[in-house]
Amino acid sequence: MKLSQKMIKAGWVVNRHRDGSFTVFGSRMQEYHYDSNTERWSVDLSVIESSLEQDLAEDSPVERSPWKSPYVISSRLTALNHTRQISQPVRYLCQEGLVSDKTVLHLGTGMDRFAREALIKAGCRDVADYDPNFFPDTSVLDNQYDIVMAHYVLNILPPAERRQVYRLIGNTLLEGGRAYLTVQGIWPVEHKYEIIRPQEDGYLIKTGYNTTFRKGYSSEDLLKEIHSELGGTAGLMTTFYSNTMAFWKKSMPNSIHDK
Protein backbone atom coordinates (compact mmCIF):
# COMPACT_ATOMS: atom_id res chain seq x y z
CA MET A 1 0.00 0.00 0.00
CA LYS A 2 1.30 3.46 -0.90
CA LEU A 3 2.28 5.83 1.89
CA SER A 4 -0.54 8.29 1.07
CA GLN A 5 -3.15 5.52 1.10
CA LYS A 6 -1.94 4.40 4.54
CA MET A 7 -2.20 7.98 5.80
CA ILE A 8 -5.79 8.33 4.65
CA LYS A 9 -6.74 4.95 6.10
CA ALA A 10 -5.29 6.07 9.45
CA GLY A 11 -7.44 9.21 9.41
CA TRP A 12 -4.63 11.59 8.48
CA VAL A 13 -5.32 14.61 6.26
CA VAL A 14 -3.26 14.86 3.08
CA ASN A 15 -3.21 18.31 1.49
CA ARG A 16 -1.44 18.78 -1.84
CA HIS A 17 -0.12 22.19 -2.89
CA ARG A 18 0.09 23.56 -6.42
CA ASP A 19 3.84 23.01 -6.66
CA GLY A 20 3.44 19.31 -5.89
CA SER A 21 4.47 19.61 -2.26
CA PHE A 22 2.35 18.16 0.56
CA THR A 23 1.29 19.06 4.07
CA VAL A 24 0.10 16.10 6.10
CA PHE A 25 -1.75 16.37 9.42
CA GLY A 26 -1.23 13.20 11.41
CA SER A 27 -2.53 12.08 14.76
CA ARG A 28 -1.81 13.80 18.08
CA MET A 29 -1.46 17.22 16.44
CA GLN A 30 1.51 16.19 14.30
CA GLU A 31 2.21 18.08 11.07
CA TYR A 32 4.56 16.94 8.32
CA HIS A 33 5.73 18.69 5.14
CA TYR A 34 7.05 17.18 1.91
CA ASP A 35 9.07 19.48 -0.36
CA SER A 36 8.72 18.46 -4.01
CA ASN A 37 11.87 20.39 -4.97
CA THR A 38 14.18 18.63 -2.52
CA GLU A 39 12.08 15.44 -2.39
CA ARG A 40 12.50 15.44 1.37
CA TRP A 41 10.15 15.34 4.37
CA SER A 42 10.41 17.85 7.22
CA VAL A 43 11.29 14.97 9.57
CA ASP A 44 12.98 11.66 9.00
CA LEU A 45 10.67 9.37 7.03
CA SER A 46 11.14 6.60 9.59
CA VAL A 47 9.48 8.82 12.23
CA ILE A 48 6.43 9.26 10.00
CA GLU A 49 6.26 5.57 9.15
CA SER A 50 6.52 4.58 12.81
CA SER A 51 3.67 6.89 13.83
CA LEU A 52 1.61 5.72 10.87
CA GLU A 53 2.05 2.04 11.64
CA GLN A 54 1.06 2.67 15.26
CA ASP A 55 -2.17 4.39 14.19
CA LEU A 56 -3.01 1.64 11.70
CA ALA A 57 -2.44 -1.00 14.36
CA GLU A 58 -4.74 0.69 16.88
CA ASP A 59 -8.20 -0.84 16.64
CA SER A 60 -9.76 1.70 18.99
CA PRO A 61 -12.92 3.83 18.93
CA VAL A 62 -12.87 7.51 18.02
CA GLU A 63 -13.10 8.40 21.72
CA ARG A 64 -9.58 7.06 22.18
CA SER A 65 -8.33 8.06 18.72
CA PRO A 66 -9.99 11.47 18.18
CA TRP A 67 -7.88 12.31 15.13
CA LYS A 68 -9.88 9.66 13.24
CA SER A 69 -13.14 11.52 13.87
CA PRO A 70 -14.94 12.84 10.75
CA TYR A 71 -15.23 16.15 12.65
CA VAL A 72 -11.49 16.48 13.04
CA ILE A 73 -10.75 15.46 9.45
CA SER A 74 -13.48 17.71 8.03
CA SER A 75 -12.49 20.71 10.12
CA ARG A 76 -8.87 20.38 9.08
CA LEU A 77 -9.79 20.22 5.41
CA THR A 78 -12.20 23.14 5.70
CA ALA A 79 -9.59 25.23 7.50
CA LEU A 80 -6.96 24.53 4.88
CA ASN A 81 -9.22 25.98 2.20
CA HIS A 82 -9.86 29.27 4.04
CA THR A 83 -6.48 30.79 4.82
CA ARG A 84 -6.04 33.70 2.39
CA GLN A 85 -8.25 36.38 3.92
CA ILE A 86 -10.77 37.07 6.65
CA SER A 87 -13.96 35.03 6.19
CA GLN A 88 -17.11 36.75 4.95
CA PRO A 89 -19.08 36.15 8.17
CA VAL A 90 -16.36 37.64 10.38
CA ARG A 91 -16.00 40.61 8.02
CA TYR A 92 -19.77 41.16 8.12
CA LEU A 93 -19.91 41.16 11.93
CA CYS A 94 -17.05 43.64 12.10
CA GLN A 95 -18.50 45.98 9.46
CA GLU A 96 -21.92 45.99 11.10
CA GLY A 97 -20.46 46.93 14.49
CA LEU A 98 -21.88 43.82 16.16
CA VAL A 99 -18.70 42.90 18.05
CA SER A 100 -17.82 46.27 19.53
CA ASP A 101 -17.09 46.13 23.28
CA LYS A 102 -17.95 42.39 23.34
CA THR A 103 -16.07 39.30 24.42
CA VAL A 104 -16.02 36.68 21.66
CA LEU A 105 -15.51 32.93 21.51
CA HIS A 106 -14.59 31.87 17.98
CA LEU A 107 -15.51 28.17 17.65
CA GLY A 108 -13.86 26.33 14.79
CA THR A 109 -11.27 29.03 14.13
CA GLY A 110 -9.31 26.78 11.81
CA MET A 111 -6.44 28.61 10.15
CA ASP A 112 -8.23 31.95 9.87
CA ARG A 113 -5.26 33.87 11.24
CA PHE A 114 -6.88 37.13 10.16
CA ALA A 115 -10.01 36.85 12.32
CA ARG A 116 -8.57 37.78 15.73
CA GLU A 117 -6.85 40.91 14.44
CA ALA A 118 -9.99 42.02 12.57
CA LEU A 119 -12.22 41.43 15.60
CA ILE A 120 -9.94 43.36 17.96
CA LYS A 121 -9.68 46.19 15.43
CA ALA A 122 -13.49 46.27 15.28
CA GLY A 123 -13.63 46.89 19.03
CA CYS A 124 -13.78 43.43 20.69
CA ARG A 125 -12.69 43.50 24.30
CA ASP A 126 -11.29 39.98 24.06
CA VAL A 127 -11.24 37.08 21.59
CA ALA A 128 -10.82 33.41 22.52
CA ASP A 129 -10.17 30.83 19.82
CA TYR A 130 -11.08 27.17 19.98
CA ASP A 131 -10.46 24.57 17.30
CA PRO A 132 -9.76 20.86 17.89
CA ASN A 133 -6.86 20.98 15.43
CA PHE A 134 -5.26 24.40 15.54
CA PHE A 135 -6.40 25.97 18.84
CA PRO A 136 -6.96 22.93 21.11
CA ASP A 137 -6.86 24.73 24.48
CA THR A 138 -10.14 23.60 26.06
CA SER A 139 -9.74 25.94 29.04
CA VAL A 140 -11.39 28.71 26.99
CA LEU A 141 -14.58 26.63 27.03
CA ASP A 142 -14.85 27.04 30.81
CA ASN A 143 -15.73 30.73 30.42
CA GLN A 144 -18.81 32.53 29.10
CA TYR A 145 -18.85 35.20 26.41
CA ASP A 146 -21.06 37.95 24.99
CA ILE A 147 -20.75 36.38 21.54
CA VAL A 148 -20.10 32.85 20.32
CA MET A 149 -19.49 32.49 16.59
CA ALA A 150 -19.23 29.30 14.56
CA HIS A 151 -18.87 29.73 10.81
CA TYR A 152 -19.03 26.74 8.45
CA VAL A 153 -18.76 24.35 11.39
CA LEU A 154 -22.25 22.84 11.68
CA ASN A 155 -22.35 21.83 8.00
CA ILE A 156 -19.30 19.55 8.33
CA LEU A 157 -20.75 17.64 11.30
CA PRO A 158 -23.10 14.63 11.44
CA PRO A 159 -26.12 15.06 13.76
CA ALA A 160 -24.54 13.68 16.97
CA GLU A 161 -21.51 15.97 16.71
CA ARG A 162 -23.72 18.96 15.82
CA ARG A 163 -25.68 18.46 19.02
CA GLN A 164 -22.43 18.62 20.99
CA VAL A 165 -21.61 21.97 19.37
CA TYR A 166 -25.08 23.34 20.15
CA ARG A 167 -24.64 22.30 23.80
CA LEU A 168 -21.26 24.01 23.82
CA ILE A 169 -22.78 27.20 22.42
CA GLY A 170 -25.49 27.17 25.09
CA ASN A 171 -22.96 26.62 27.86
CA THR A 172 -20.39 29.23 26.78
CA LEU A 173 -22.80 32.06 25.97
CA LEU A 174 -23.70 34.63 28.62
CA GLU A 175 -27.37 35.26 29.36
CA GLY A 176 -28.51 37.87 26.86
CA GLY A 177 -25.60 37.03 24.56
CA ARG A 178 -25.80 36.13 20.91
CA ALA A 179 -24.49 33.26 18.80
CA TYR A 180 -23.74 33.90 15.13
CA LEU A 181 -23.84 30.76 12.99
CA THR A 182 -23.03 30.40 9.30
CA VAL A 183 -23.54 27.28 7.19
CA GLN A 184 -23.08 26.17 3.61
CA GLY A 185 -26.11 26.17 1.35
CA ILE A 186 -27.58 23.18 -0.44
CA TRP A 187 -26.32 24.15 -3.92
CA PRO A 188 -22.56 24.24 -3.18
CA VAL A 189 -22.72 20.98 -1.23
CA GLU A 190 -24.55 19.18 -4.03
CA HIS A 191 -22.58 20.69 -6.94
CA LYS A 192 -19.05 21.56 -5.78
CA TYR A 193 -18.06 18.18 -4.36
CA GLU A 194 -17.82 14.62 -5.55
CA ILE A 195 -20.69 12.95 -3.68
CA ILE A 196 -20.06 9.34 -2.75
CA ARG A 197 -23.44 8.60 -1.15
CA PRO A 198 -26.08 10.02 1.22
CA GLN A 199 -24.97 9.87 4.85
CA GLU A 200 -27.45 10.53 7.69
CA ASP A 201 -28.94 13.97 6.90
CA GLY A 202 -26.15 14.96 4.52
CA TYR A 203 -23.62 13.37 2.20
CA LEU A 204 -20.35 11.52 2.31
CA ILE A 205 -18.13 13.43 -0.10
CA LYS A 206 -14.67 13.19 -1.60
CA THR A 207 -12.47 16.16 -0.72
CA GLY A 208 -9.02 15.89 -2.21
CA TYR A 209 -7.59 12.65 -0.88
CA ASN A 210 -10.03 12.32 2.03
CA THR A 211 -13.65 11.33 2.54
CA THR A 212 -15.73 13.59 4.80
CA PHE A 213 -19.27 14.61 5.72
CA ARG A 214 -21.17 17.62 4.37
CA LYS A 215 -24.68 18.92 4.93
CA GLY A 216 -26.29 21.68 2.88
CA TYR A 217 -28.81 23.97 4.57
CA SER A 218 -31.61 26.19 3.39
CA SER A 219 -32.19 29.23 5.59
CA GLU A 220 -35.38 27.59 6.87
CA ASP A 221 -33.49 24.38 7.72
CA LEU A 222 -30.94 26.25 9.82
CA LEU A 223 -33.49 28.30 11.78
CA LYS A 224 -35.59 25.20 12.43
CA GLU A 225 -32.54 23.28 13.70
CA ILE A 226 -31.39 26.13 15.95
CA HIS A 227 -34.84 26.39 17.51
CA SER A 228 -35.03 22.62 17.95
CA GLU A 229 -31.61 22.38 19.62
CA LEU A 230 -31.50 25.65 21.57
CA GLY A 231 -35.04 26.99 21.84
CA GLY A 232 -35.24 30.74 22.45
CA THR A 233 -35.04 33.36 19.73
CA ALA A 234 -33.34 32.78 16.37
CA GLY A 235 -33.45 34.77 13.16
CA LEU A 236 -31.96 35.19 9.70
CA MET A 237 -29.23 37.83 9.41
CA THR A 238 -27.95 37.63 5.85
CA THR A 239 -26.86 35.27 3.10
CA PHE A 240 -23.57 34.93 1.27
CA TYR A 241 -24.70 33.58 -2.11
CA SER A 242 -26.55 30.44 -1.01
CA ASN A 243 -24.89 30.28 2.43
CA THR A 244 -26.91 31.39 5.45
CA MET A 245 -25.91 33.41 8.50
CA ALA A 246 -28.29 33.33 11.48
CA PHE A 247 -28.30 34.49 15.08
CA TRP A 248 -29.54 32.97 18.33
CA LYS A 249 -30.16 35.01 21.47
CA LYS A 250 -29.79 33.35 24.85
CA SER A 251 -32.75 34.78 26.69
CA MET A 252 -32.70 32.74 29.86
CA PRO A 253 -30.44 30.36 31.81
CA ASN A 254 -30.62 26.68 30.94
CA SER A 255 -32.58 27.36 27.75
CA ILE A 256 -30.68 24.66 25.91
CA HIS A 257 -32.45 21.34 25.75
CA ASP A 258 -30.74 18.44 27.48
CA LYS A 259 -30.99 15.89 24.73
Strand content: 25-35%
What do we call the CATH topology of the largest domain? Rossmann fold
Question: How would you write the strand order of the largest sheet?
Answer: 6-5-7-8-13-12
| Unreliable stretches | 254-259
Question: CA-to-CA gap between the ends?
Answer: 43 Å
Average pLDDT reading:
84
Number of strands: 13
The CATH level-2 architecture of the largest domain is identified as: 3-Layer(aba) Sandwich
Pairing-aware structural class of the strands and helices?
Answer: alpha+beta
The CATH class name of the largest domain reads Alpha Beta
Our count of helices gives 8
**Percent in helix:** 25-40%
How would you describe the overall organization of this protein?
- The chain is of the alpha+beta class and 259 residues long.
- The chain folds into 2 domains: 3-67, no CATH class; 88-249, Rossmann fold (3-Layer(aba) Sandwich).
- The protein has 8 helices and 13 strands.
- It has helices at residues 3-9, 45-57, 70-80, 88-95, 115-121, 159-172, 186-191, 219-230; strands at residues 13-16, 22-25, 31-35, 40-41, 103-107, 126-130, 145-151, 173-183, 194-199, 202-207, 210-214, 233-240, 243-249.
- The strands form 3 sheets. It has a 6-stranded mixed beta sheet, sandwiched between helices. It has a 4-stranded antiparallel beta sheet with strand order 1-2-3-4, sandwiched between helices. Strands 9-10-11 form a 3-stranded antiparallel beta sheet.
- Helix 6 (159-172) links the parallel strand 7 (145-151) and strand 8 (173-183).
- Helix 1 (3-9) crosses helix 2.
- The longest helix has 14 residues, at 159-172.
- The model is unreliable at 254-259 (pLDDT under 50).
